[in-house]
Write a structure and sequence with these properties.
Bound molecules: zinc ion
Radius of gyration: 24 Å
Number of strands: 15
Distance between the termini: 16 Å
Order of helices and strands: EEHHHHEEEEEEEEEHHEHEEEHH
Shape: elongated
């Protein structure tokens, strides 16, 4: 039920919402109006740039809302804040577009949103919104029944409310400001983590965490459902049903995976002072793992998504608990002996690390030990400051952005 959005300070709680038929119609209408507004604002920015080489800001576009509300009375029913939010969303899309252009990437230009890609109404500044017993009151919309067990607010300030349409119905997401959590007491323990293929992760203490059974089963199902979608004719009823089934499986797996990784990262952060992982390649870690069949296609994207999510969770949980989270350069980590430091080439099929010096360990566990050693060196080394970019391949103990861990367009995130 809880869903942290940012490393510290905010926490989001998600509740299933029960909308009446009228409310569903209204929400659908409002989604359409806000989406039209987003698309129109995007069109305007495109035109302004093409014709006059002008850049329109969110601020100037927000000022136009007044005229829009006069010309199109249907917009008068919606609170101003709700109409400002799509313009800010568009502005963010442009900001990240320009940022990526500047850094030499070739991002796609912000795109028009179809109804399928527009699923939430956001009260970014929730004046007039409040939580009552099993009901959320949304300004100008009215009270919505939610399935709720606890009051998450605990006296903290409500920052944002969103009404969201998902594959299986409606949800309300309440974001609260939370006080910065206290640091956990020191345990004197450290851990290195290797992102494996055979098992999901391996720890430097010898623990191997296998791929959960549900993930393998679900992967098969998802591939099947994906094929079914592509076989059916576009625009047909049968295709729409297949798409819906596919989306539901996706959502189901994403939830299970989130729960699993939340528990795993929580345990690691609670038990260790230092947590070391290999530095994540944003483009996808498993892509560089050679052409063995295990790492190919869909399975790969799932692995990338799981690891990205795990590293992200570790980074913000470590930060808020006062733990050291270090990312190290993974070069040759699987070829190096943790005992004597010798580098010896290993085939992917060699599952056991066995060195001439007499050290024998599971291949991935040995790699996790090398990663931990590198992290401890980074922490001892005063020359390299622990900066965000991990200068010269060195580690960082700064929380990562969700974007940098999860990449873009990864499955089920
Ligand atoms: Zn050795």
């Amino acid at each position: 039920m809880t869903e942290p959005l940012t490393p510290t300070g905010h926490r989001a709680f998600k509740f299933r919402a029960v909308l009446t038929r009228d409310q569903e119609r209204k929400a659908g209408e409002w989604l359409k109006l806000t989406r039209d507004l987003y698309n129109a604002a995007l069109q305007e920015r495109r035109d302004a740039y093409r014709k006059k080489k002008e850049t329109r800001s969110a601020y100037t576009q927000q000022k136009d809302l007044k005229t829009i509300r006069v010309d199109l009375p249907e917009y008068q029913k919606l609170p101003t804040r709700l109409l400002q939010e799509p313009l800010q969303r568009l502005d963010l899309a442009f900001q990240s577009f320009f940022r990526r252009v500047k850094s030499g990437q070739t991002p796609g230009y912000p795109r028009f949103r179809s109804a399928k890609r527009w699923d939430s109404l956001v009260w970014a500044d929730p004046v007039g919104c409040r939580l009552e017993s099993s009901k959320v009151v949304l300004s100008k919309f009215g009270g919505i029944k939610i399935i709720q067990w606890t009051d998450p607010s605990d006296g903290s300030r409500l920052l944002r409310v969103a009404l969201k349409r998902e594959a299986d119905g409606w949800y309300v997401v309440l974001t609260y400001e939370i006080p910065k959590p206290k640091s956990l007491p020191s345990t004197g323990k450290t851990v290195g983590i290797d992102l494996g293929l055979k098992s999901l992760v391996a720890f430097s203490d010898g623990t191997l965490i296998p791929h959960p059974k549900w993930s393998r089963k679900a992967n098969r199902k998802i591939v099947q459902q994906q094929r079914r979608v592509s076989r059916r004719i576009k625009g047909s009823n049968r295709r729409r049903k297949a798409v819906h089934a596919f989306a539901k499986t996706h959502q189901h797996v994403a939830r299970k995976r989130k729960y699993f990784l939340d528990c795993l990262s929580r345990k690691l952060v609670n038990e260790n002072d230092v947590i070391a992982v290999e530095k994540l390649n944003v483009r996808g870690i498993s892509r560089g793992m050679g052409s063995n069949s295990q790492g190919r296609g869909f399975r790969r994207s799932v692995l990338d998504a799981s690891w990205g999510q795990l590293i992200w969770m570790l980074s913000y949980k470590a930060e808020s608990a006062g733990r050291k989270f270090v990312q190290v350069d993974p070069a040759y980590s699987s070829q190096t002996c943790p005992s004597c430091g010798t580098i010896k080439r290993k085939e992917l099929s060699e599952r056991v690390h066995s060195c001439d010096c007499g050290y024998v360990a599971d291949r991935d566990v040995a790699a996790a030990q090398v990663i931990l050693q590198r992290a401890l060196e980074v922490l001892r080394c005063p020359i390299f400051p622990l900066n965000r970019e991990g200068r010269a391949g060195m580690g960082s103990s700064v929380p990562l952005s969700r974007e940098s861990c999860l990449g873009t367009g990864t499955y089920g995130s």
